[in-house]
What does this fold into?
Amino acid sequence: MSLTIRRYRPGDQEAVVKLWEACQLVVPQNDPLKDIRTKIQFQADLLLVAIAEDRLVGTVMAGYEGHRGWINYLAVAPDQRRRGIAKKMMASAENKLRALGCQKINLQVRRTNTTVINFYRTIGFREDDVISFGKRLS
Ligand SMILES: CC(C)(COP(=O)(O)OP(=O)(O)OC[C@H]1O[C@@H](n2cnc3c(N)ncnc32)[C@H](O)[C@@H]1OP(=O)(O)O)[C@@H](O)C(=O)NCCC(=O)NCCS
It folds into this structure.
């Protein structure tokens, strides 16, 4: 399988939203179009897509705020899973964050999402002894 991991382009928008829907990543509190629009104003080169045989099959959104790196919207099309696509996208995202000076990546996953928990453990992430807080500003 030929796989390309590259930066998001405007023409990818529809396929990205469809992928996020297929991966159940679209929830009422997040507007995917707004999330894409906002991201391409901040570190646009950290929104990556995976292309296999001309089809958009994966995404990962990374971010760096000067101290820690963050990962969101990691997704692989259901029929393309267990082929190492997420692992390759994460390697690209990690390289980009490292190049910016990032020393550690943080991320949040739902406790019930055992697939993604297993995935992150496999690629070297470990659970931190922290409570995750959040506050909505809008
Ligand atoms: C999590 C996800 C991105 C993994 O994508 P993927 O391309 O299938 O992952 P990879 O093929 O790179 O997996 C690498 C390794 O992770 C582990 N892994 C991945 N999926 C797993 C699963 N369902 N169960 C157990 N281990 C798993 C395995 O060790 C795997 O290696 P192996 O296939 O050689 O055993 C994908 O399942 C997905 O899109 N899930 C829905 C979206 C989601 O929940 N995203 C996270 C939001 S926080």
Notes: The first helix runs from residue 13 to 22. The mean pLDDT is 97. The domain at 3-122 is CATH 3.40.630.30 (Aminopeptidase). Residues 23, 25, 74-76, 81-87, 109, 113, 115-116, 118-119, 122 surround coenzyme A (CB under 6 Å).
